[in-house]
Amino acid sequence: MLHSQALSADSTQAHTKKSYLSKVFDREINLSFLIIIIALYLVATANIGFFAQVLSIYPFSSNVGFIVSITGLLFGLMWLVIQLLCYRPIAKPVLIALVLIAAVCGYFTDAYGTIFDRSMLVNSLQTDQAEAMGLMAPSFFIRLLFLGVVPAVIIAKLRIKHAPLRRAILQKAATLIAAIALVAVCLLPFGDQYATFFRQHKMVRSYANPITPIYSVIKFGMDYTAELRRPETMIMHATDAKRSTANGRTAKPKLMVFVVGETVRADHIGLNGYQRDTMPLLARQPDIYSFKNASSCGTSTAYSVPCMFSYANRSDYNPDEADYNENVLDTLNKQGVNVIWRDNNSSSKGVADRVTFEDFKTSDLNPNCDDECRDSGMLDGFDKLVKTEAPAKDTLILLHQMGNHGPAYFKRYPKEFEEYQPVCMTNELSKCDDQAVINAYDNAIRYTDYFLNNVIDTLKDYQQEYDVVMVYVSDHGESLGENNIYLHGMPYAIAPAAQKQVPIIIWSPTDNSIDKNSLTDMINQPVSHDFITPTVLNFFGITTDEVAAAPTFFKSTR
Q: Which residue from 219, 208, 224 is spatially nearest to 101, judged by alpha carbons?
């Protein structure tokens, strides 16, 4: 009798639990609310490795606000990504896939420090069964079961509330706006710290799960698609290009030094009315023309430099196609111009792949290296560059500066150029006040002034024999704390003017072939990187229908 009663009680309890679970799963849940829950769940369970990396750089005790902010930022980004991926007909499969991916990737990140970037994705696809099984441990299956399979089953059993189309669209729009607002609220108060975090600790953000794996899959797909579209041969440009006969026979050979500046913004140039005399040497040089309203093609070196020398305007330039399209250096090379690219930066970004390239980032070629190799070292052996052949021929020498590359502006110049003090002596901009950051930045511009002045003085020695000119153009600008924004690289549409307005400075002596009236007319007009390709071709007397109607910084008279 007692045994029968116990069985009856157990049966009643089981029925009660089953009835409770049935009620839970029978109840409809709003999709937007479910996405918030999943986003919180993923932040908490899949990002132990990410937070461990963050805390190793920013101890919690002295960075409470920033740690809270970065937690909110990760949640905001997670919320935003899931919102963009989830729509009611596919919501359950997407959410189930996310928790399973997060459980798997989170395990390998926490256990082995694995980062699921594009390279790791390719490596994973090439791993055979034996290698894969060698990585499996009981803890993997336990984690997958409790943090992946169980939540996936729960999601599968939930009933998602069906909303009318109009209400669903409004809810989606509202949640997307809310997620973006949360991201902005987390970013803005700590802009200086995030500037350093994103620039100096790029690897840490790759620990974010499952955002990094999702991005890597998308990137892999895009790269694969782009590779399928890639032509087997280079796309030719200016195939109708012709040299001026007069330039080839009666005029002096042309010699242009084109300095590709780095991270200099126009409003910190003394020649343009900046309150500080950041270019005192150029201010004393005759025949200097400084353009007051110049804009860049992009807000980063990787984007801007290939764009500067392409045949595309900013509006139709595609960075994914740049490496299989000829640029203006290719045209000049084919037309017999001696083209040399000297680089004291990261690289030419593919621009100089088919012309003479010299790396001045090390002391192997650069004789002026201390804490780092200096831009002035690129002038070493200049005479050998110019007088490579007899008779003398047209020559274009491109010098790619380290310039004002941040955030360690204090490293970009020798100590004797430290005119403005105190300076920020760290790449952690959050540890310095804004004026110290600006002081270091302006000191770096003074070193560029010194470098450009040396370029001009070097060219003066060739005036009798060559038709000479120097052109200086920065690749993009820089934010220095305005509205708590630092560095560069923001999307062009929303980037502040400080990241897009750049200096363009031309030294054009009175005896060269450039029409000075054309220069004077242009220095106050809106110009851009789009003017570079047609200007260079014009100076070397090369015509092509591809840029026949394009504006230039100046006109050459012969």
A: 208
